[in-house]
Amino acid sequence: MNPIQETTVPKYPPLEDRPIKNTICLFDVDGTLTPARLAVSPEMLSALQALRQKVAIGFVGGSDLKKQQEQLGAVTGENVTSMFDFCFSENGLTAYKLGAALPSNSFIKWLGEEQYKELVRFMLHYIADLDIPVKRGTFVEFRNGMVNVSPIGRNATTQERLDYQKYDLEHKIRETFVEKLREKFGHLGLTFAIGGQISFDIFPNGWDKTYCLQHLENEAKRPGGIEYKTIHFFGDKTMEGGNDAEIFSDPRTVGHTVTGPEDTMKQLKELFGI
Ligand code: M1P
Protein backbone atom coordinates (compact mmCIF):
# COMPACT_ATOMS: atom_id res chain seq x y z
CA MET A 1 0.00 0.00 0.00
CA ASN A 2 1.13 3.55 -0.66
CA PRO A 3 2.73 4.61 2.63
CA ILE A 4 1.17 8.06 2.28
CA GLN A 5 -2.40 6.76 2.12
CA GLU A 6 -1.93 4.86 5.37
CA THR A 7 -1.05 7.99 7.23
CA THR A 8 -3.33 10.59 5.68
CA VAL A 9 -3.30 13.80 7.75
CA PRO A 10 -0.71 12.60 10.24
CA LYS A 11 -0.58 14.39 13.57
CA TYR A 12 2.58 16.13 14.56
CA PRO A 13 3.65 17.28 18.01
CA PRO A 14 3.36 21.07 18.40
CA LEU A 15 6.63 22.78 17.48
CA GLU A 16 7.54 23.36 21.13
CA ASP A 17 7.09 19.64 21.88
CA ARG A 18 9.15 18.20 19.05
CA PRO A 19 11.79 15.85 20.48
CA ILE A 20 14.60 17.93 18.93
CA LYS A 21 12.94 21.24 19.62
CA ASN A 22 15.55 23.83 18.61
CA THR A 23 16.36 22.25 15.28
CA ILE A 24 14.81 22.83 11.89
CA CYS A 25 15.54 21.19 8.56
CA LEU A 26 15.14 23.44 5.54
CA PHE A 27 15.08 21.98 2.05
CA ASP A 28 15.59 23.40 -1.40
CA VAL A 29 12.85 22.02 -3.71
CA ASP A 30 14.14 21.26 -7.25
CA GLY A 31 16.88 18.64 -7.20
CA THR A 32 16.60 18.20 -3.42
CA LEU A 33 13.01 17.22 -2.53
CA THR A 34 11.94 16.55 -6.11
CA PRO A 35 13.67 15.85 -9.41
CA ALA A 36 14.10 19.22 -11.21
CA ARG A 37 10.67 20.68 -12.08
CA LEU A 38 8.93 17.33 -11.36
CA ALA A 39 6.68 15.93 -8.64
CA VAL A 40 7.74 14.69 -5.23
CA SER A 41 7.80 10.91 -4.64
CA PRO A 42 5.64 9.08 -2.04
CA GLU A 43 8.90 7.87 -0.44
CA MET A 44 10.09 11.42 0.08
CA LEU A 45 6.75 12.40 1.62
CA SER A 46 7.01 9.47 4.04
CA ALA A 47 10.52 10.52 5.01
CA LEU A 48 9.37 14.10 5.61
CA GLN A 49 6.44 12.91 7.71
CA ALA A 50 8.76 10.83 9.87
CA LEU A 51 11.21 13.71 10.20
CA ARG A 52 8.44 16.13 11.18
CA GLN A 53 7.71 13.98 14.21
CA LYS A 54 11.19 14.89 15.49
CA VAL A 55 12.11 18.36 14.23
CA ALA A 56 10.54 21.33 12.49
CA ILE A 57 10.67 21.15 8.69
CA GLY A 58 10.42 23.71 5.92
CA PHE A 59 11.19 24.29 2.28
CA VAL A 60 12.81 27.29 0.65
CA GLY A 61 12.45 27.67 -3.10
CA GLY A 62 12.86 30.42 -5.68
CA SER A 63 9.59 29.66 -7.47
CA ASP A 64 6.19 30.80 -6.35
CA LEU A 65 3.84 28.86 -4.08
CA LYS A 66 1.67 27.71 -7.00
CA LYS A 67 4.64 25.91 -8.58
CA GLN A 68 5.63 24.35 -5.26
CA GLN A 69 2.05 23.22 -4.68
CA GLU A 70 2.10 21.49 -8.08
CA GLN A 71 5.33 19.67 -7.27
CA LEU A 72 5.02 18.92 -3.55
CA GLY A 73 1.25 18.45 -3.42
CA ALA A 74 1.17 16.21 -6.51
CA VAL A 75 0.85 12.88 -4.67
CA THR A 76 -1.74 13.66 -2.00
CA GLY A 77 -3.36 16.86 -3.29
CA GLU A 78 -2.83 18.22 0.22
CA ASN A 79 -2.21 21.91 0.69
CA VAL A 80 1.55 22.36 0.79
CA THR A 81 1.28 24.88 3.63
CA SER A 82 0.04 22.09 5.89
CA MET A 83 2.69 19.59 4.77
CA PHE A 84 5.56 21.66 6.19
CA ASP A 85 5.86 23.73 9.36
CA PHE A 86 7.44 26.54 7.34
CA CYS A 87 6.97 27.28 3.63
CA PHE A 88 9.27 29.82 2.06
CA SER A 89 8.30 30.57 -1.54
CA GLU A 90 10.27 33.04 -3.63
CA ASN A 91 13.08 32.58 -1.12
CA GLY A 92 10.79 33.68 1.72
CA LEU A 93 9.14 36.77 0.21
CA THR A 94 5.97 34.71 0.58
CA ALA A 95 6.08 32.71 3.81
CA TYR A 96 3.80 30.50 5.88
CA LYS A 97 4.10 29.04 9.36
CA LEU A 98 1.72 26.19 10.19
CA GLY A 99 -0.58 27.26 7.37
CA ALA A 100 -0.74 30.93 8.38
CA ALA A 101 0.83 33.69 6.28
CA LEU A 102 3.88 35.53 7.66
CA PRO A 103 4.72 39.10 6.53
CA SER A 104 5.39 39.20 2.82
CA ASN A 105 7.57 41.42 0.68
CA SER A 106 7.90 42.37 -2.97
CA PHE A 107 10.33 44.01 -5.35
CA ILE A 108 8.09 47.03 -5.94
CA LYS A 109 7.41 47.51 -2.21
CA TRP A 110 11.15 47.54 -1.64
CA LEU A 111 12.19 49.74 -4.59
CA GLY A 112 9.25 52.14 -4.81
CA GLU A 113 7.35 53.25 -7.91
CA GLU A 114 9.54 56.26 -8.76
CA GLN A 115 12.83 54.38 -8.79
CA TYR A 116 11.26 51.48 -10.63
CA LYS A 117 9.91 53.80 -13.32
CA GLU A 118 13.37 55.33 -13.77
CA LEU A 119 14.92 51.88 -14.09
CA VAL A 120 12.33 50.55 -16.53
CA ARG A 121 12.46 53.74 -18.63
CA PHE A 122 16.22 53.37 -19.04
CA MET A 123 16.01 49.65 -19.85
CA LEU A 124 13.27 50.00 -22.46
CA HIS A 125 15.17 52.82 -24.19
CA TYR A 126 18.32 50.72 -24.12
CA ILE A 127 16.54 47.70 -25.62
CA ALA A 128 14.84 49.85 -28.28
CA ASP A 129 18.26 51.06 -29.43
CA LEU A 130 19.83 47.59 -29.47
CA ASP A 131 20.64 46.26 -32.90
CA ILE A 132 20.27 42.49 -32.55
CA PRO A 133 19.10 40.01 -35.24
CA VAL A 134 15.69 39.23 -33.70
CA LYS A 135 13.35 40.95 -31.27
CA ARG A 136 10.09 39.48 -30.02
CA GLY A 137 7.89 40.58 -27.11
CA THR A 138 7.86 40.91 -23.31
CA PHE A 139 11.20 42.59 -22.79
CA VAL A 140 10.56 43.34 -19.14
CA GLU A 141 8.69 40.82 -17.01
CA PHE A 142 7.54 42.23 -13.71
CA ARG A 143 7.50 39.53 -11.02
CA ASN A 144 6.72 39.71 -7.31
CA GLY A 145 10.32 39.39 -6.12
CA MET A 146 12.28 40.57 -9.14
CA VAL A 147 12.25 41.99 -12.63
CA ASN A 148 13.35 39.76 -15.49
CA VAL A 149 14.79 41.57 -18.51
CA SER A 150 15.32 40.06 -21.94
CA PRO A 151 16.81 41.88 -24.97
CA ILE A 152 15.11 39.44 -27.38
CA GLY A 153 11.92 39.20 -25.32
CA ARG A 154 10.39 36.31 -23.40
CA ASN A 155 8.06 35.40 -26.28
CA ALA A 156 10.99 33.96 -28.25
CA THR A 157 10.54 30.39 -29.49
CA THR A 158 12.87 27.58 -28.40
CA GLN A 159 14.95 27.91 -31.56
CA GLU A 160 15.08 31.69 -31.22
CA ARG A 161 16.25 31.25 -27.62
CA LEU A 162 19.08 28.96 -28.71
CA ASP A 163 20.15 31.30 -31.50
CA TYR A 164 20.02 34.28 -29.17
CA GLN A 165 22.04 32.53 -26.49
CA LYS A 166 24.83 31.89 -29.00
CA TYR A 167 24.68 35.46 -30.32
CA ASP A 168 24.67 36.85 -26.79
CA LEU A 169 27.77 34.89 -25.85
CA GLU A 170 29.64 36.18 -28.92
CA HIS A 171 28.48 39.79 -28.70
CA LYS A 172 28.20 40.10 -24.91
CA ILE A 173 24.77 41.76 -25.19
CA ARG A 174 23.59 40.97 -21.69
CA GLU A 175 27.00 41.45 -20.12
CA THR A 176 27.31 44.97 -21.58
CA PHE A 177 23.72 45.82 -20.66
CA VAL A 178 24.25 44.71 -17.07
CA GLU A 179 27.51 46.70 -16.85
CA LYS A 180 25.61 49.84 -17.89
CA LEU A 181 22.89 49.14 -15.35
CA ARG A 182 25.43 48.62 -12.59
CA GLU A 183 27.01 51.98 -13.45
CA LYS A 184 23.73 53.82 -13.50
CA PHE A 185 21.72 52.04 -10.81
CA GLY A 186 24.40 50.38 -8.67
CA HIS A 187 23.66 52.78 -5.80
CA LEU A 188 20.17 51.24 -5.39
CA GLY A 189 21.57 48.04 -3.86
CA LEU A 190 20.41 45.79 -6.69
CA THR A 191 21.83 42.49 -7.89
CA PHE A 192 21.92 41.89 -11.66
CA ALA A 193 22.16 38.16 -12.30
CA ILE A 194 22.59 36.53 -15.70
CA GLY A 195 21.24 33.02 -15.11
CA GLY A 196 19.29 31.60 -18.03
CA GLN A 197 19.49 31.70 -21.83
CA ILE A 198 17.89 34.97 -22.91
CA SER A 199 17.48 37.20 -19.89
CA PHE A 200 18.81 38.47 -16.59
CA ASP A 201 17.17 39.01 -13.21
CA ILE A 202 17.23 42.15 -11.09
CA PHE A 203 16.50 41.92 -7.36
CA PRO A 204 17.63 43.58 -4.13
CA ASN A 205 21.00 42.49 -2.74
CA GLY A 206 20.56 39.62 -0.29
CA TRP A 207 17.25 38.40 -1.70
CA ASP A 208 18.66 34.94 -2.19
CA LYS A 209 17.66 31.95 -0.03
CA THR A 210 19.18 33.57 3.09
CA TYR A 211 16.19 35.93 2.97
CA CYS A 212 14.02 33.27 4.64
CA LEU A 213 16.26 33.10 7.72
CA GLN A 214 14.84 36.39 9.00
CA HIS A 215 11.47 34.65 9.47
CA LEU A 216 13.13 32.09 11.74
CA GLU A 217 14.95 34.84 13.63
CA ASN A 218 11.61 36.58 14.14
CA GLU A 219 10.24 33.38 15.67
CA ALA A 220 12.79 33.62 18.48
CA LYS A 221 11.70 37.22 19.19
CA ARG A 222 8.04 36.29 19.72
CA PRO A 223 7.02 35.75 23.36
CA GLY A 224 7.39 32.02 23.91
CA GLY A 225 8.76 31.63 20.38
CA ILE A 226 11.32 29.01 19.50
CA GLU A 227 14.92 29.89 18.85
CA TYR A 228 16.17 27.62 16.08
CA LYS A 229 19.74 27.10 17.22
CA THR A 230 20.46 24.49 14.57
CA ILE A 231 19.23 25.16 11.06
CA HIS A 232 20.09 22.33 8.68
CA PHE A 233 19.92 23.29 5.03
CA PHE A 234 19.85 20.69 2.24
CA GLY A 235 20.42 21.74 -1.35
CA ASP A 236 21.87 20.52 -4.63
CA LYS A 237 23.15 23.84 -6.07
CA THR A 238 25.49 24.66 -3.21
CA MET A 239 28.57 25.34 -5.35
CA GLU A 240 29.70 28.94 -5.93
CA GLY A 241 27.28 30.62 -8.32
CA GLY A 242 24.54 28.08 -7.54
CA ASN A 243 21.29 29.39 -6.09
CA ASP A 244 21.81 27.44 -2.82
CA ALA A 245 25.35 28.75 -2.30
CA GLU A 246 24.58 31.70 -0.01
CA ILE A 247 22.34 29.85 2.46
CA PHE A 248 24.59 26.79 2.36
CA SER A 249 27.62 28.79 3.49
CA ASP A 250 25.74 31.17 5.80
CA PRO A 251 27.11 31.00 9.37
CA ARG A 252 23.54 30.58 10.65
CA THR A 253 23.06 27.24 8.90
CA VAL A 254 24.60 23.78 8.78
CA GLY A 255 24.83 23.12 5.06
CA HIS A 256 24.39 19.73 3.38
CA THR A 257 25.02 19.16 -0.31
CA VAL A 258 22.82 16.51 -1.91
CA THR A 259 23.00 14.94 -5.35
CA GLY A 260 19.22 14.50 -5.65
CA PRO A 261 16.11 13.40 -3.71
CA GLU A 262 17.45 9.86 -3.10
CA ASP A 263 20.57 11.32 -1.52
CA THR A 264 18.46 13.70 0.60
CA MET A 265 16.56 10.72 2.03
CA LYS A 266 19.82 8.84 2.62
CA GLN A 267 21.34 11.77 4.51
CA LEU A 268 18.18 12.25 6.60
CA LYS A 269 18.31 8.58 7.54
CA GLU A 270 21.93 8.93 8.65
CA LEU A 271 21.36 12.15 10.55
CA PHE A 272 17.99 11.50 12.19
CA GLY A 273 17.55 7.73 12.02
CA ILE A 274 14.28 7.95 10.12
O1 M1P B 1 16.75 29.73 -13.71
C1 M1P B 1 17.53 30.60 -14.45
C2 M1P B 1 16.68 31.63 -15.18
O2 M1P B 1 15.73 30.97 -15.99
C3 M1P B 1 14.99 31.83 -16.83
O3 M1P B 1 15.89 32.50 -17.69
P1 M1P B 1 15.84 32.46 -19.30
O4 M1P B 1 14.43 32.67 -19.70
O5 M1P B 1 16.77 33.57 -19.68
O6 M1P B 1 16.38 31.13 -19.74
C4 M1P B 1 14.23 32.88 -16.04
O7 M1P B 1 13.16 32.29 -15.35
C5 M1P B 1 15.15 33.57 -15.06
O8 M1P B 1 14.39 34.38 -14.20
C6 M1P B 1 15.94 32.58 -14.25
O9 M1P B 1 16.87 33.24 -13.44
Automatic annotation (TrEMBL):
Record-linked Pfam families: PMM
Binding site for alpha-D-mannose 1-phosphate: 37, 143, 154, 161, 199, 201
Cited SUPFAM superfamilies: HAD-like (SSF56784)
Cofactor: Mg(2+)
GO cellular component, one term: cytosol
GO process terms (BP): GDP-mannose biosynthetic process; mannose metabolic process; protein N-linked glycosylation
Top-level taxon in the UniProt lineage: Eukaryota
Principal place of residence: cytoplasm
Pathway: Nucleotide-sugar biosynthesis; GDP-alpha-D-mannose biosynthesis; alpha-D-mannose 1-phosphate from D-fructose 6-phosphate: step 2/2
Residues of the active site: 28, 30
Localisation per UniProt entry: Cytoplasm
Gene Ontology MF terms in the entry: metal ion binding; phosphomannomutase activity
Positions bound to Mg(2+): 28, 30, 236, 248, 250, 253
Enzyme class: isomerase
Catalytic reactions of this protein: alpha-D-mannose 1-phosphate = D-mannose 6-phosphate
Function noted in UniProt: Involved in the synthesis of the GDP-mannose and dolichol-phosphate-mannose required for a number of critical mannosyl transfer reactions.
Name listed for the protein in its UniProt record: Phosphomannomutase
Protein species of origin: Monosporascus ibericus
